[in-house]
Design a protein that fits this description.
The chain is about 25% helix and about 35% strand. It is of the alpha+beta class. It has 2 domains: about 1-60; about 70-205, Hypothetical Protein Tm1070, Chain: A. Strands 1, 2, 6, 7, 8, 10 and 13 form a 7-stranded antiparallel beta sheet that branches. Strands 9-5-11-12 form a 4-stranded antiparallel beta sheet, with no helix packed on it. A hairpin with a 5-residue loop joins strand 6 and strand 7 (about 130-135). The relative contact order is 0.20.
Length: about 210
């Protein structure tokens, strides 16, 4: 007894329709679980960044104002000061040694509540110890409790995984030492990364007896 052609075609189309339905269902799940959260996260980060930019206390890196002033020479003979080494990481390695590029922010904070300090030199070095560039054109005066930042952009690969800063600061009075740190961050992927490294003292101007 022969089976009608229409019946065989219907039987063949039914599994295909089921497969297509499953594929559409899986795509919907991926969209809801992966795409929607990523878009929402990006929107939230954009809103947060915009709110920070609109904050009256927000300032761009290396800004110059009443608390951060370029000067031509030291206004006094330094009685205290330091030369600092600050580790920096233009990239780190992850997975099978794949480099992950990072944005580097060098933060210099005057912790003294009464006296100014002068940041006289900030130099950026690569992994081989060669100077990449100077981050300061003139000495920078920081008022009491003022701070400044220097940024190495994520796309700047010159420093490498063993990059560093050498920072020199001085003061005309005995002061509390500034806090100098490098902050590395990357938020380009769904899972961000950030970490901080503190300065190490290489040389120090002795306080007067």
């Amino acid at each position: 007894m022969m089976t009608p052609m229409g019946t065989m075609s219907d039987a063949t189309d039914e599994p295909i329709e089921k497969i297509e339905k499953i594929v559409r269902y899986l795509k919907l799940i991926v969209f809801l679980i992966v795409i929607v959260p990523m878009v929402a996260l990006a929107a939230i980060m954009q809103l947060r960044f915009q709110s920070v930019k609109e904050d009256p206390n927000f300032h761009m890196p290396s800004v110059r104002d009443a608390a951060r002033v370029d000067i031509d020479s030291l206004p006094w003979h330094p009685v205290s000061g330091q030369t600092l080494y600050v580790p920096a990481y233009s990239h780190i390695f992850h997975q099978d040694g794949v480099p992950r590029l990072l944005t580097v922010t060098l933060s210099v904070r005057n912790t003294d509540r009464k006296n100014e300090i002068i940041v006289s030199s900030v130099k950026y070095f690569d992994s081989s110890g060669k100077e990449v560039r100077s981050m300061l054109r003139k000495p920078l005066k920081l008022s009491p409790l003022a701070s400044t930042e220097f940024v190495v952009e994520q796309k700047d690969k010159k420093g490498g995984s063993g990059a560093s800063f050498i920072v020199d600061w001085q003061s005309g009075q005995p002061v509390s030492h500034p806090v100098v740190e490098s902050v590395m961050i990357d938020t380009s992927n769904a899972q961000g990364i950030s970490f901080v490294r503190s300065a190490t003292v290489l040389d120090e101007v002795a306080k007067p007896e």
